[in-house]
Amino acid sequence: MCKIVLVLALGLAAGGRAAAQHGPWGLGRTATAADIDKDAGLVGPTGEGLPVGHGTTSQGRLVYAQRCAQCHGPSGEGNAVYPAVVGGRGTLGSPHPLLTVGSYWPFATTVWDYVNRAMPYLNPGTLQPDEVYAVTAYLLAMNKIIPEDMELNERNLAGVKMPNRNGFIPDPRPDVK
Ligand code: HEC
Which of 12, 91, 111, 149 is most buried by its number of CB atoms within 10 A? Predict the structure, then answer.
C-alpha cells in the first residue's frame, strides 16, 4: 500500500505528461499481481518464507543506534511520542500494561516480519535481511529473551521462545470474505 502511494506521489512530482497515459486521472500504474497478493513476502509464526540471512546482537546494536534509537530511545525505552520496544514484562494484567516486543509479542518471527516491512517508520523496506536479523536479535537481547551475542538466522528464529507466547486466545470464528 505504501509503495502504491509512493508511486502516485512520484507520478505527481514527475509532472503530468508521462503519467497522463494512466487511467482517467493520469496517475499511477496498473497494480501488478504482487501488489494485489496481500500475503506476498509475509512471514508468519512458523517462519516460513524467511529469507536466508543472519545477524548477531552486536551487529544489531549498530543498526539500532543508526536507524531506530532516535525514535525508540537509546535503550528501547520509547518517549512521549514513540513506543517503547523494551520492558513491560509482567505488566499485561496490570491497570497500565506496557506492550513491547518483550512483554507482548508472541513470536520472534513476526517481530522480524514487522520490522522488515514497517520499520524504520519513515523509510520502511530499506533494511537488508541481515540487518533485520541483527536488529531483531538486539531487540530480543535488550529484552533478555536471548543471550548477548547470539546470532539469529532463518533456521533458529522460529525456535526463540517469547515470554507472551501463550498469552493469546485463538479466535475460533471462521474467516469470512
Ligand atoms: C521515525 C521514528 C521511528 C523510527 C526511526 C523507528 N520506529 Fe519503530 N515505531 C515507530 C512508531 C511510530 C511505531 C508505532 C507504529 C504503529 O503503531 O503503527 C513503531 C513501532 C515499532 C515496533 C512495535 C512496537 C512494539 O513494541 O509493539 C517495533 C518492534 C519497532 N517499531 C521497531 C523498530 C526498529 C527495529 C527500528 C529501526 C530499524 C525502528 N522501529 C525505527 C517509529 C519509529
Answer: 111
In this structure, which residue's CA is closest to atom 31 in ligand 1?
119
Q: Ligand 1 pocket, 141 CB below 6 A?
A: no
Indicate the residue type of 27. L
Nine cell digits for residue 122: 519513515
Q: What's the burial of 159, exposed, middle or buried (CB within 10 Å: 0-12/13-18/19+)?
A: exposed
What one-letter code names the amino acid at 132? Answer: V
Which residues have CB under 8 Å from 69's CB, separation 6+? none
Query: Ligand 1 pocket, 120 CB below 6 A?
Result: yes
Work out the burial of residue 129: count CB atoms within 10 Å of its CB; fewer than 13 is exposed, 13-18 middle, 19 or more buried: middle
pLDDT in tens, 109-130: 999 999 999 999 999 999 999 9
Contact in structure between 51 and 129 (CB atoms under 8 Å): yes
Neighbours of 157 (CB within 10 A): 22
Under 8 Å between Cβ of 142 and 68? no
